[in-house]
Amino acid sequence: MAQKNYLDLKSEVWDCGKCSGCGACVAVCPADAISFDEGEMVVAPKSNGYCKQSTDSVTCGACYAVCPRVGEQPAETLGNYLELACAKSSFEVPHKQSGGAVTAILANALDQGLIDAIVTVTEDRWTLKPSSVIITKSDVLIQQAGSRYSWWVPLLAALKYAVVERKFRRIAVIGVPCAVQAVARMRESDNDLVKPYGDAIRLVIGLFCTETFDYAALIQGKLQTHYKLEPHEIKKLDVKGKLEILKHDGTTTIVPLAELETCIRKGCHYCTDLTAVLSDISAGSIGSPAGTTTLIIRTPTGKGFVESAVQNQKLALTPGVDTAPIEKLASAKIKKNSRK
Ligand SMILES: Cc1cc2nc3c(=O)[nH]c(=O)nc-3n(C[C@H](O)[C@H](O)[C@H](O)COP(=O)(O)OP(=O)(O)OC[C@H]3O[C@@H](n4cnc5c(N)ncnc54)[C@H](O)[C@@H]3O)c2cc1C
Ligand code: SF4
Ligand code: SF4
Predict the structure, then answer these.
(1) What residue segments make up the domains of the chain, in order of their start?
(2) What is the value of pTM for the model shown?
(3) Tens digits of per-residue pLDDT, 2-24?
(4) CATH classification number, 6-66, choose in 1.10.1660.10, 3.20.20.140, 3.30.70.20, 3.40.630.30
(5) CATH 3.10.450 for the 215-263 domain, yes or no
(6) Long-range contacts made by residues 15-18, C-beta under 8 angstroms, separation at least 24?
(7) Distance (Å, rounded) from C-alpha 25 to C-alpha 32?
(8) Measured in angstroms, how far is the CA atom of residue 147 from the centroid of ligand 1?
(9) Which of 13, 32, 63, 152 to mutate to test the pocket of ligand 2 (most atoms within 8 A of CB)?
(10) How many whole angstroms from 314 Cα to the centroid of ligand 2?
């Protein structure tokens, strides 16, 4: 049966600026025909023009099947969940973003043999340039903790290498909500070309996300040119109603978010999911005291991974998540972006 193909994706998503940059279509294209260019504000992927379906009339439709920007968008604030917790790693995580809970859950999962690989985003500590990475050792994961805000990396493109080349069958994905939505489509899909991806993903941890910034526009354009800040001077970036830049010399530079509008990826303006409602576990900083991570444990799978980390004394949980600020921020995101 004819499926929608990359030409439909191009007209419905790429050409209208809706692409989130998740990279799922790049991963699942069996002809390796879809890719992202490097550079500033790359809005969408491109095709080399070959398509199994439109060129050779062979049933495919893989790229269209996984795209999170096709069809109805999630528009819930907290989504379904089993439990909420304020969480903290029970061991030192040097670059953790909030409580180091994401690192603790996944380091435990690797050490216990519950997963064999993690697909996530890392950054060059000198240039802060982000890239997608596959991690198989807990000590490497612990060194990679922290959030990458200047992200346009097509994270899920790395799944092709993880699933097809390395043949990992128990993969954990850490991703912002758009990537989580794409993985949910992979897990649900009955497309034979997509199924191997969905079957290989054991756990999905979603990070709360209001928007992400383009690396070249934020780091090179805004911070280096305007604020005379070199990437190697930056210790940590955090977004709390403004961009807080903590430098290695202990000083902080504040950049109002209004100044960063032009650095936000275009596709983020169509996003209505703050808390990654389709994940197994969602993680964020709002809703919990400083130094802890808010965990939204959504599925029995997610609960199992959290319980294992607690039992092995890698993770400590306390009650008391304040859902009001999360719901407020999530509602504001839905209101701002849902009519476009
Ligand atoms: C782009 C972005 C925007 C965010 N916006 C908000 C927000 O508005 N409000 C809020 O409360 N929380 C937000 N978060 C989540 C928050 O910053 C923390 O990631 C979360 O609280 C988990 O903290 P942790 O200390 O448990 O994670 P850590 O233990 O530090 O582990 C984080 C893990 O996430 C991986 N990672 C980092 N960046 C990315 C990325 N871009 N894609 C995939 N994996 C990644 C790292 O490799 C690391 O393994 C955002 C995160 C990101 C990446
Ligand atoms: S949102 Fe993801 S799957 Fe859809 S076109 Fe963009 S990169 Fe491809
Ligand atoms: S705001 Fe939405 S589209 Fe943009 S990176 Fe975050 S989850 Fe993806």
Answers:
(1) 6-66, 83-212+266-337, 215-263
(2) 0.96
(3) 689 999 999 999 999 999 999 99
(4) 3.30.70.20
(5) yes
(6) 15/44, 17/43, 17/44, 17/266, 17/267, 17/269, 17/270, 18/69, 18/267, 18/270
(7) 10
(8) 4
(9) 13
(10) 35
